Amino acid sequence: MKILVCVKQVPDTTEVKIDPVKGTLIREGVPSILNPDDANALEAALQLKDKDPEGTSVAVLTMGPPQATYMLRECLAMGADEAYLLSDRVFGGADTCATSTTIAAGIRKVNELGKVDIIFAGRQAIDGDTAQVGPQIGQRLGVPVVTYVQDYKVEGDKVIVQRQLEDGYEVIEVGMPCLLTAVKELNTPRYMSIGGIVDAYQKEITVWDHVAVDLDPADCGLKASPTRVFRSFTPPQKGKGEMLEGSIQEMGAKLVGKLVEKHYI
Ligand SMILES: Cc1cc2nc3c(=O)[nH]c(=O)nc-3n(C[C@H](O)[C@H](O)[C@H](O)COP(=O)(O)OP(=O)(O)OC[C@H]3O[C@@H](n4cnc5c(N)ncnc54)[C@H](O)[C@@H]3O)c2cc1C
Q1: What distance in Å separates the CA atoms of residue 116 and residue 104, rounded to the nearest whole number?
Q2: Distance 191 CA to ligand 1 centre (A)
Q3: Model pLDDT, residue 229
Q4: What is the CATH number of domain 2-224?
C-alpha cells in the first residue's frame, strides 16, 4: 500500500499577525514548522507502515519555496520514505484553487511511479485556515473525500473512518483510493529519531516544476487564482471582562443591575 501525505510549512504561531498597513501576513522573525494537522496525518500514515513495514510506503508532498525542504527532511526523519517538493516561480501567488490544482498534478505524477491508495491532508493549515485544499485535491483527482477523520482502520480495499462531528462522530466506509483529512484527535505525532535524522539526509528530495507535473503556467499561481483579497485585518481587541463575585444570587442580581444600567434589558 502507498500512502501520500500533503504537508505544508507554516509560521510557528496560532496567532497569525497581519501588517495593519499592507494587510499582509507578518512572517518576519517567525520560525516555520510542519503544519500541526499534517503532523497528525503523517503519524496516521506511519502507524500503518509500522503494522506492515515491507508492504507499506509513505510519501510526503508539498508545494512551496525551496526552504520547504527543511520540513520535508523532518518528515523523512519521522519515517517517511519519499519526499516531493513542487516548487516553481509560476506557482507563486496561488490561492487555494490554484494550490490544489498544482498539488493534484503532483499526486498524478507520483501515481505514475506507484499508485497511491490513501491520500492524507490535514484538516486545515494554521496560517491560511481555510480547510479547502484537502477536499479540492480530492475533487481534482476524482477520489472520495472524508474530512475531520479522528480514527480509521483499513479493511481490504476499504477504509472505515470515524468522522468527527460537534457532538459525536459518524462511521463512514470509503473505497480506496480516497482522501482523508486529519484532525488532532487522530493521534499524537512521533518525534524524529536520531537514526531517522541521519537517514533523512541520505534520502533524496524530488523537486518538480510546472513542466515536470505537466501543468500550463496559465493554470498555476496567481494567474489561476480567482480569489481576490479586498482587505485583511486583525479585529480590535475586546475590552477586559469583569468577574462578578459573591453567591449565585448576588452575582445574578449584580448582572441584572449591569444589564439594566446599560439598557440591554
Ligand atoms: C490571492 C491569494 C494569493 C496568495 N498568494 C500566496 C503566495 O504567494 N504564497 C503563499 O505561500 N501563499 C499564498 N496564498 C495563500 C495560499 O493560497 C494558501 O496558503 C494555500 O492555498 C493553502 O490554503 P490554506 O492555508 O487555507 O490551507 P488549508 O486548506 O487550510 O489546508 C488544508 C490542508 O491542505 C494541505 N495543504 C495546504 N497547502 C498545502 C501546500 N502548499 N502543500 C501541501 N499541502 C498543502 C495540508 O495538508 C493542509 O493541512 C495566497 C492566497 C490568496 C487568496
Answers
A1: 12
A2: 25
A3: 85
A4: 3.40.50.620
